[in-house]
């Protein structure tokens, strides 16, 4: 399993447009093969920051996601709407389950 943790810092005057783009990419991505989770979360301490949690069955599924039109459109939006580039952490998980 591959997990991505992504942090976005949105320009204050662009929040509505950024959130609309995030909703659109999430809906399309959740339809992709191998995507088990793709959710955005608000930062409770800073309204301009958003966190994305992605979970993929394999690296091949994630690689396929990187080639989609909806992700290309989302990246173009974020280039305009963010204060700085997003920070992305990738985790390769060998096992996961409930505590």
What is the topology?
Blueprint: E1 2-9, H1 15-29, E2 35-42, E3 49-56, H2 59-66, H3 69-81, E4 87-92
Antiparallel strand pairs: 1-3, 1-4, 2-3
Helix pairs in contact: 1-3
Describe this structure in words.
There is one protein chain. The chain is of the alpha+beta class. The protein has a single domain (2-91), classed as 2-Layer Sandwich (Alpha-Beta Plaits). The chain has 3 helices and 4 strands; from the N terminus they run βαββααβ. It has a 4-stranded antiparallel β-sheet. β2 and β3 form a beta hairpin. The chain is globular, with a radius of gyration of 14 Å.
Give the low-confidence spans: none
Give me the count of strands: 4
Number of separate structural domains: 1
Annotated CATH topology? Alpha-Beta Plaits
| CATH class category name | Alpha Beta
Percent in helix:
25-40%
Structural class: alpha+beta
For the biggest sheet, the summary is: 4 strands, antiparallel
Strands side by side in the biggest sheet:
2-3-1-4
Span of the ends, CA to CA:
18 Å
Mean pLDDT: 97
Shape: globular
Strand/helix succession: EHEEHHE
Which CATH architecture would you pick?
2-Layer Sandwich
Rg over CA atoms = 14 Å
Number of helices: 3
Strand content: 25-35%
So what's the oligomer here?
single chain
Task: Give a nutshell description of this structure.
The chain has helices at about 15-30, 60-65, 70-80; strands spanning about 1-10, 35-40, 50-55, 85-90. The chain is α+β, with helices and mostly antiparallel strands and about 100 residues long. Strand 2 (about 35-40) and strand 3 (about 50-55) form a beta hairpin.
